Amino acid sequence: MIKDGGNSLLAVGEEAKKMLGRTPRGIFTVRPLKEGVIADFEVTAEMLRYFIKKVHNPNRFTRPSVVICVPSGVTEVEKRAVSEVAYKCGAGRGFLIDEPTAA
Questions:
Q1: What is the DSSP string of 8-31?
Q2: Among 35, 66, 90, 102, which residue carries the largest CB count within 10 Å?
Q3: What 3-state class would DSSP assign to 96?
Q4: How far is CA 51 from the centre of its chain?
């Protein structure tokens, strides 16, 4: 993710990757997940909100269900954090699956 000093989201994913090394002062790269675990709760929430808005019409009354892959070694507390951030971002039901299952 690419953010400015005012915490505005400027780019996510491939778009952010293209901007690496080409950003002016005051704009920086943020990695909200480290090794599949939430490193920054608020930035992760912002990233998930971005993805949900991208694929789900915000004018609908339903919340989308999401499937999130988590590393097999994460703790129950870390899994709960992932579920909480998904719900906070507008997801309805959140299904967590282990990486080996997703592969």
A1: -EEE-THHHHHHTT-PPTTEEE--
A2: 66
A3: strand
A4: 7
Give pLDDT tens digits for 89-101: 888 888 899 888 8
* Total structural domains within the chain: 1
Q: 54-98, pLDDT tens digit by residue?
A: 888 767 778 888 898 988 888 999 888 888 888 888 888 888 998
Among candidates 22, 26, 20, which has minimal Cα distance to 7?
26
- Structural domain for 89, as ranges: 31-102
Predicted model pTM? 0.72
CA distance 16 to 79: 26
Strand runs (DSSP E) across the chain, as ranges? 2-4, 9-11, 27-29, 33-34, 37-38, 66-70, 94-98
